[in-house]
Model the fold of this input.
Amino acid sequence: MWIVLFILAFMFVLGNALLLLRTTKTPKIPDHLKAAPDDEDNTSDW
Done:
């Protein structure tokens, strides 16, 4: 009996995790934005 409850709980958790992963949306960065150039000369300041 306990194994059936464990399997049902596992399927419920797995189903909810897959649903959350499917519905998450990655942020879209506009094309006109570009990364700032790294200023590697200032790394010796600390």
